[in-house]
Amino acid sequence: xxxxxxxxxxxxxxxxxxxxxxxxxxxxxxxxxxxxxxxxxxxxxxxxxxxxxxxxxxxxxxxxxxxxxxxxxxxxxxxxxxxxxxxxxxxxxxxxxxxxxxxxxxxxxxxxxxxxxxxxxxxxxxxxxxxxxxxxxxxxxxxxxxxxxxxxxxxxxxxxxxxxxxxxxxxxxxxxxxxxxxxxxxxxxxxxxxxxxxxxxxxxxxxxxxxxxxxxxxxxxxxxxxxxxxxxxxxxxxxxxxxxxxxxxxxx
Length: 252
Known about the structure:
It is built from nine helices and four strands; from the N terminus they run H-E-H-E-H-H-H-H-H-E-H-E-H. It is mainly α.
């Protein structure tokens, strides 16, 4: 619970904020569509987790919501949606199509990708186990998940947004980052619930963070709407809002 919620807060405030500080991020029709379609699904997901329990059946429903989300966007855009790193992969494919690659280069890069995936898997297990070893208290685990684990999970998207901004911040990459919000509250929670129903004893621990997660997405939409972009000033505002929002969750 804490990872999915905390990661989404960091995606909205830190990833997009850092990217916009480097250069204004485009927030045109495609990106706005991802955000607006994702908000009601986020509300539905919050409804599922409000009582601190996500059953296997509810996990299936969350997965179905993600498929619906993808399907609607695919129909509207008449092309597969860009999620997470998909935008970068599309750009890389176009570049490779116009370049001559050295013999053996592809094999080397595939090896690096495989090594990266293994490192991510090992790192994920170590991170979760570290939280378990630090404390067995549910409230403290939730706090660590919302902050440390959530930020760690979203950090690749922080780097992705920063890198995209340096290279011209194409709309497809920003759309992928925004689309990750919906992925986390549907696929991440849904798949986990299928493996083992998710439960937390004190469901109230999730209420303020869940509302804050939705508020973070609304804030991004409001800041991006007037000029169809997230300006540098808005980027600084988003980054500054991250610690303030976390303090509000834990202190109020």
